[in-house]
Amino acid sequence: MAFESDKVMFEIYREKTYTGQYRVVYYTELDEHNKEWEINRALAGDSFYDGFLKSHRAEEGKQIIAQFIDRMNQGEKIDPGQLSAALKDYSAV
Q1: How far apart are CA 80 and CA 37, in angstroms?
Q2: What is the pTM of this model?
Q3: Residue ranges per domain, the chain?
Q4: What are the backbone dihedrals phi and psi of residue 41, each rounded to the nearest 5 degrees, phi first?
Q5: Please, are residues 92 and 2 in contact by the beta-carbon 8 Å criterion?
């Protein structure tokens, strides 16, 4: 079992205002100067997917997340199950 410090908590959400774009926030990487603003922004959106990445594989997982977000923002319909499958080796459960 992974310790909390061995994980990166994230959420993919869709903005309800402005562009309606999909975005990701990595909660465990926020600092004091942007924490409140980023959390409020995510809470105002529609949650699409959330989870944890293994810290030692987080950068690879972030690249996959970025690719999925780009595809969704270009109009491709993505099922959360597709994202789960792609992140299987990077997820900390």
Answers
A1: 26
A2: 0.89
A3: 4-86
A4: -65, -45
A5: yes
3-state secondary structure 65-80: HHHHHHHHHCCCCCCH
The residue whose two tokens read 């959390």 is 39
Which residue in this structure is represented by tokens 């900390």? Answer: 92
Tens place of pLDDT per residue across the chain (93 aa): 445 568 999 999 999 987 899 999 999 999 998 899 999 999 999 999 999 999 999 999 999 999 999 999 999 999 999 999 999 999 997
Cβ-contact 10, 27 below 8 angstroms? yes
Q: Rounded distance, CA 39 to CA 43, Å?
A: 6
